[in-house]
Amino acid sequence: MSSKLASLNDWVASVAQLTQPDAIHWCDGSDAENARLVGLMLANGDLIKLNEQTHPDCYLHRSSPTDVARVEHLTFVCTTHPADAGPNNNWMAPDEAHGEMDALYKGCMRGRTMYVVPYCMGPVDSPLSRCGVEITDSPYVVANMRIMTRMGAQALARIERDGSFVKGLHSVGELDPDRRYIMHFPEELMIQSYGSGYGGNALLGKKCHALRIASYQARTEGWLAEHMLIVGIENPKGETHYVAAAFPSACGKTNLAMLIPPEGYRRDGWKVWTVGDDICWMHPGADGRLYAINPEAGFFGVAPGTSEKTNPNAMAMLNHDAIFTNVGITADGQPWWEGMSSGQPVKDWQGRDYDKSVSPAAHPNSRFTVSAKHCPSYTAKAEDPEGVPISAIVFGGRRASLVPLVFEARDWTHGVLVGAAMASETTAAATGAVGVVRRDSMAMKPFAGYNFGDYFGHWLSFDKPGAKLPKIFQVNWFRKDADGKFMWPGFGDNMRVLEWMLKRVTGQAEAVETPVGNLPKPGDLNVDGLDLDPAVLEQLLTIDRAGWKEEMAHIGEYLEGFGDRTPAALEAERARIAAQLA
Ligand code: SAT
Ligand code: MN
């Protein structure tokens, strides 16, 4: 097989020339093709079949123990000028990077099949969607791409119509951490990945394309590619408002996207609809509002901590047609991870006999891959080619102290500053130390495909005559008390905070103005039925002026790090707030 597009055929031929596969397979995305690949992986040990009664068509994959997370230190943005990648990225000259990669790729697919995977990010018929082709030698990657994207014949037809696509080349190589690179060439709309089979390093449609390359493309084309979930909140009158929310990896985006409201809300008729749990592409519409699509077709969620209590919607979608990576397993072949309310693991994620004193059953960054259509709260609006209008944008991080439960930015410029200044404690989603506070602007630190200074400027540019922009909020579900205990219950109760935001959007709630932002008036946040000490709530909604004065100084130093690429308007906004706090 080949395509009607000469540029695609030529590229596939040149990659085959370099990598020397035994065979080339063009993926059509069919059930028969998937069944064949699954059969192959069961035979070679890449997949283990799970209990057919409890988990029909579910499989366990155990990765190499040194290949379990994104590798930010091996991830590069290769622009002609280093300043275009910015201090927020690792940079390598494109020529040098191509040289390194060609040397790694040379003959690397000998004895293997090369799969050509055409995919579309977003509904195939949407003008907001963009396509790519991933070439890979991993059947596990193909099986995951089939869930995570619109993959196969339909995508190829669109690529042939569009005539353009993002080129992604991936090989698992030897899975050697010392021979591993994730390279991005935004100026060529190209991704090259070698030596890892893990999600964010290998499923190139996800972070590599839909965030790093797309953010670069979005800047030139006037839209935004963001690390955000998209959720619809339906009120008892049947009106739905859509909210986009940015949080760093493993900070609860999937749980928030699938939130089940507290009982009182459900009784009153509130509903929550899932559009996406990780990535959001937003384009300005003719009416001045921002319209968003979820470019993905599935969820690649963190397994540990997912339970009937924290995310019943996720649990309901995980008992058929799912791939589990690096979780434990019970005696009767069911997947198991820490936080599950029942079951007992017998093997850990590496296939060793489970011993609690040696290692957790599931790796902290173990994942499930499942089609979005399985999610009980998934909305048909997620397939709408026009996207959904966004009423509010939320920035959130994991901060044990200082940042209140919620505040609203005064205007767009202030909101962009709030996003740019975001900080969070690091998690197991990337290799490296966990729990260290670092700046993570818009939760895009590992994912922006260009200089953050230019990126902040791009965000500011949306504020123009005729624009009807969403309100911007900051939240922090992760405040801890002196004993290290979380102060806010989180999960379903985050609905209370969402309701206050939407009241602000529709002009139904007032706010207390502070230099840092606008906070809920006492009594405006619905805490009915919540077992929360009023003193704790007050603490959660108080601004520590001295602490914020210091924070503003740190933010100033951070913004200075992007030199003259930092927009003057952003620094002026920061200086204004700092002066008010003084
Ligand atoms: O590994 S992924 O990048 O796909 C998931 C994440 O870190 O958010
Ligand atoms: Mn993510």
UniProtKB/TrEMBL annotation:
It comes from the Bacteria. Pathway: Carbohydrate biosynthesis; gluconeogenesis. It catalyses: oxaloacetate + GTP = phosphoenolpyruvate + GDP + CO2. GTP binds at A250, C251, G252, K253, T254, N255, R367, R398, F491, G492, D493, N494. The keyword Metal-binding applies. The active site is at C251. Keywords: Cytoplasm, Decarboxylase, Gluconeogenesis, GTP-binding, Kinase, Lyase, Manganese, Metal-binding, Nucleotide-binding, Pyruvate, Transferase. Substrate binds at R70, Y198, G199, G200, S249, N365, S366, R367. Monomer. Catalyzes the conversion of oxaloacetate (OAA) to phosphoenolpyruvate (PEP), the rate-limiting step in the metabolic pathway that produces glucose from lactate and other precursors derived from the citric acid cycle. Belongs to the phosphoenolpyruvate carboxykinase [GTP] family. This is Phosphoenolpyruvate carboxykinase [GTP]. It comes from Arenimonas caeni. The gene is pckG.
